[in-house]
Structures are given as C-alpha cells and as structure tokens.
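Sequence in, structure out. Go.
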Amino acid sequence: MVHFTETEQPLTSNDLAKVELAFGFSFPADFRDHYLRHNGGRPQKSLFKKDDTVFVVSEFLPIKYGNMLFEDCFRDLKIEREVLPEHLVGFAVDPGGDYYCFSVRDNDYGSIWIYRGEHSDDPERAVEYLAPSLTKFLESMEPDES
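Output:
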C-alpha cells in the first residue's frame, strides 16, 4: 500500500459525483475508493518502473480543496486547450509537468497512461500505457532510495 502525505481535506462520494456530472465522465471504482481515502497528495513510494524506464509521480491532484486542483487541470487540458487525448483524464503530475491519466474509453477503462507534453505534436509518442488500473499502478510503485 502506498501512503500519501500533504493530502487535502477528505472528500465525500457526493463531491466526486459533482465532478463526474460537471465533466461528463465516471471515475473508475478504484480511483473513487482511492480519492475517498486520499485527496491528492504526494505518494511515499513515488517511482513506477516499466521496462527500462523509471517514472516519477510527484503528486496526485486534489479535488475541491487545495492548489492545482484536478478540476482546474481538467478544464485547462481538456476543455480550454484540448491538450489531452479525448479518452484520457489527468490525475497526477511528474516533476517535469507531464500528466498521469486514466482512460475513460470502453476497451481500456481505468487503465493508467502518461502524457508527455514535449511530444504533443506527435500523439502516438505523447501517450504511453503504464498499467491496467490505478490499483496495479500503485501496487507497482517503489520508494525513491536516492
């Protein structure tokens, strides 16, 4: 289990339902459960390894309370600038400002991806699949021993 620090005020199921209604998607069940326990924050195990690549998760975006809100990022990335692919919803960031996302697409609903802004001109390179679910993503995270 990954512990989180610097989390925001706890959420209710109603808080999550309001976000879903406002933006027209449903949170995956494990994402919903996670956010009812930890509203944003910094994971103590912050490294996710895939093949020869190490991904660093700086923080999960809080909902409703705090700075750099999930809702504000959704508006910016999905509505105003239309940066993220249609099927991805950002929920966390790395140190360089890239976004960890979950999919709302039927065939891979809840899977975890990373969106790299430096490849925004090449949509195929900009996104990379990381894990089948938030649960598997978190279970695979390791502490940064450096």
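Check: Residues 5 and 42 are 5 Å apart (CA to CA). Residues 4-139 form a domain with the SMI1/KNR4-like fold (CATH 3.40.1580.10).
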